[in-house]
Every structure is written in C-alpha cells, then in structure tokens.
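Task 17 of the worksheet. Students: predict the tertiary structure of the chain below and write it out as structure tokens. Keep your answer in the requested format; marks are given for formatting as well as content.
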Amino acid sequence: MEKANWSSPVAEFIILGLSAYPRLEKMFFVLILMMYLVILLGNGVLILVTILDSRLHTPMYFFLGNLSFLDICYTTSSIPLVLDGFLTPRKTISFSACAVQMFLSFAMAGTECVLLGMMAFDRYVAICNPLRYPVVMSKAAYVPMAVSSWAIGGTASAVHTSLTIQLPFCGNVINHLVCEILAILKLACTDISINVISMGVTNVIFLGVPVLFISISYVFIIATILRIPSAEGMKKAFSTCSAHFTVVVIFYGTLLFMYRKPKSKDSLGADKEDLSDKLIPLFYGVVIPMLNPIIYSLRNKDVKAAVRNLMAHKCFTQ
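Model answer:
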C-alpha cells in the first residue's frame, strides 16, 4: 500500500511500542526497570573504581570507563521514556525530544563501534608489542583516541539526525519502542535516497571498518599467543583480551542478527516479526550495556580488588 501524498508539520509523534501486547508491557516494565538499575549500578561502580584506584589508571581501563559512561548515556537516552510508555495509555513524544533521542542513540551506538576498535588496538599492542606498549599507548595517545571516538560518533549522528528531521512526514505514528531513525524514515513523504546512501556509508564506517580492524588485530593477537612457549603464559595472554573479544562478539553479533534476519511473508509471521523487530533492538540497547561491566569484571582480579577496596574504604569512613 502506497503512502498518501500529503504532509503536514509534525508537533509530536505517537509511539506504538507494545500497545498491542498489554500483558507484555507490564512484564517488560518490571524486567527492563530491574535491568536499567543494574546498568546504572554496574557501570557506575566501574567508572568510580577506574577513577579512584590508581592501579587502574591504564589505557585499557580508561577505555573501559568510557565504555561504561557511554552505556549509561545510551540507555538513559531511551529507557526512561520506554518505561513511561509502558505505563501511559497515550504514548507521545514531542518532535524536539524525538530528535534529541535520535541523536543520542545513534551517537552512542556509533561511538561504541569506534571505541571497540580502539580497545582492540590497545590489546594488540599490549600482547604483540609489550615492550613498546608504554610508548605507543601513552596518555598523549589514548586520550585523543577516546575523544576522537566520541567526536566521530557525534558528528555522524548530527548529520543523520539533521537529514531526517528536515523531511516532510505523512504521519506521526512510530511503530517502534523509541524514536529510531529507521522507524522515522518510514514516515517520510518524499524521496529518501540521500538518507539511504548516507546510512550505507555510515554502516561501512561504523560496522565494516571496525570489524575488519578488530578481526585483523585478533589474527595477530592469536598468532602471537600461540607462539608463547608456556601454557601459563598463553592463559594469561588470553585472559587479557577474552573480555573484549566476548563483548565484540555479542555487540556485532546482535547487530548482524538485527539487520540480516529474513522477512516473513504471511500475516501471522509478519506479526511475530513486528514484535521481534521491537524486542531485538531492546535486547541490543539494554542487555549489552548490562553485560559489559559483568563481563569485564567477572574474571578481572584488578577490578575485583578495586571494588573491594572501595567498599572497605566506604565502610571504614562510616
């Protein structure tokens, strides 16, 4: 069915969310609220210990602190509004608030893609060139690397958001949980070729290039580890990059699943697909930020020790 050939200024958008599944709304409200609190607690503690513990003032933990701050920003830009939408019968958001949400979510996702690539380079230098690590990954190097990740993600998001909000829209009903750029583009009444082309270029920059860079880095990392003569040395080397590798697999694996899954043709399958199209990005936006601090601290003795010291210091001061 073709879109109606009319448009009018949009003051607000109506977000459908899971309104067709009222029972799911109640269940997901409780579940997502609990997960959001875990995200704030886990990532907040990780940021705190990387700042307060001098032993964690290294490039790896600096990047990790940035990743935790990014995850808090990413979830806070959307989850409170999603939770509010689960409770209110009329789920509306102003045009300006929708634009801000689009910008923040896209900027945080793009920044994380670049940041994971930077972290892969850090692990590559640490394992493949350990003697040069203090020189290559000096503060004068890793701070600009992190700043550039934020700058690249923010710039790309500003471009896409500005291109999107200038479009004329044929309606204001968003069939999604949040103001997501791809969902907004479906409402456009005009040709969106420029948006599609720019989105394709962005996918290459934020998905293709980092994945290629990370893959090449891990080829060299694995080759170096396999040449280590002692089993203990190999185990130690693997442990230094296993957390990052796990996060990369989950992060990019979810993205690939989101954009590569086949489309259903029958109506029942389409309904299920419509639900999955909303829940999979929710998994991407909530579960991954919740898992990141757990993965990075579960087998990390330095982080565990820093948390224990922080708790002991807090108890002592009280």
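Marker's comment: Residues 258 and 280 are 7 Å apart (CA to CA). The radius of gyration is 22 Å.
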